Amino acid sequence: MTMTEKFKIILKYIKDMSSETPDVETFISTGNHLNKYQLDIDIKSLAIKNKMIQVDLTLKYLNKDSEVKRSHFEIVYAAVVKIDEAIKDKKELEKIILCDVPNAIYPDLEKSFLDMMHNSGHPNVKLEKKIDFTKLYSEKFN
Question: How confident is the model at residue 140 (pLDDT cuts 50, 70, 90)?
Answer without folding.
Answer: confident
